[in-house]
Write a structure and sequence with these properties.
191 residues, mainly alpha, Helix Hairpins, three-stranded antiparallel beta sheet, 11% strand, globular
C-alpha cells in the first residue's frame, strides 16, 4: 500500500494570518510529505507494506514508527483546523466542563501543556476507555493511541509548525491557532 499526503480541506492561504501560506508550504508540503515518502520507502517489502497507517503506528518501532506516527499526527492536526471558526458544540462543552471545571480552564491547561513541553512534540486532548477526557503531552513522534487513548485534538509544537510566522514565540502561536480549531470535528470524535 502506498501512503500519500491527503489534500488539505482548505487552500494553502486560508489559515492566514494565523498560519501563513509559507508555513503551510513548508510544514504540510515538505515536512509532512517527507514523513510519508520516508515511510513508503521503509515499508516496501516489510510486514508493514499492506497496513493502514494507524496499524503501523500501533505495531511498529524505530524509524518506521517515527515516520508513520508523524504522518498520522500531521494529518490529524491539519484536518482539525478550519479557516471558518466553529463554536464548541454543547456535548463537548459539557464534557470539557465536567473534566476541567470550565472551557476556559481547559484552554488554560491545554495551552500550558503545549507551551511547557520541552523540545519538540504534541499536545493532545484525549479520551480514555472509560470516556474520561485528559490532556497529554507527547515528545517527538509519540502518539497517545499507543497508550490506549483516543485522540480528539492535537496541536503541533514542533518548531516547524510555527517558526516562520512566530519565530520563537510558541505561546503566541498557541493562542492564535486556538481560533482555527474545528470544534465540531473534535466533538464528533467523542465516543
Amino acid at each position: 500500500m502506498i501512503h500519500s499526503v491527503p489534500e488539505l480541506p482548505y487552500s494553502q492561504d486560508a489559515l492566514a494570518p494565523v498560519i501563513s501560506a509559507e508555513t503551510i508550504e513548508y510544514h504540510y508540503g515538505k515536512h509532512f510529505q517527507t514523513y510519508v515518502d520516508n515511510l513508503n520507502k521503509m515499508i516496501e517489502g516489510s510486514p508493514y507494506e499492506d497496513m493502514e497507517i494507524e496499524d503501523i503506528v500501533m505495531k511498529a518501532g524505530g524509524a518506521v514508527f517515527n515516520n508513520a506516527a508523524q504522518a498520522w499526527n500531521h494529518n490529524f492536526y491539519f484536518q482539525t483546523l478550519t479557516p471558518a471558526p466553529v463554536g464548541i458544540p454543547e456535548i463537548l462543552e459539557d464534557r470539557l466542563t465536567k473534566a476541567f471545571g470550565t472551557v476556559a480552564d481547559f484552554k488554560a491547561a491545554f495551552i500550558k501543556a503545549a507551551s511547557t513541553l520541552f523540545g519538540s512534540g504534541w499536545a493532545w486532548l484525549c479520551q480514555d476507555k472509560e470516556g474520561n477526557l485528559t490532556i497529554v503531552q507527547t515528545q517527538n513522534a509519540d502518539n497517545p493511541m499507543t497508550q490506549g487513548l483516543k485522540p480528539l485534538l492535537t496541536i503541533d509544537v514542533w518548531e516547524h509548525a510555527y517558526y516562520i510566522d512566530y519565530r520563537n514565540r510558541r505561546a503566541a502561536y498557541l493562542e492564535a491557532v486556538w481560533a482555527l480549531i474545528d470544534w465540531e470535528k473534535v466533538a464528533d470524535r467523542l465516543v
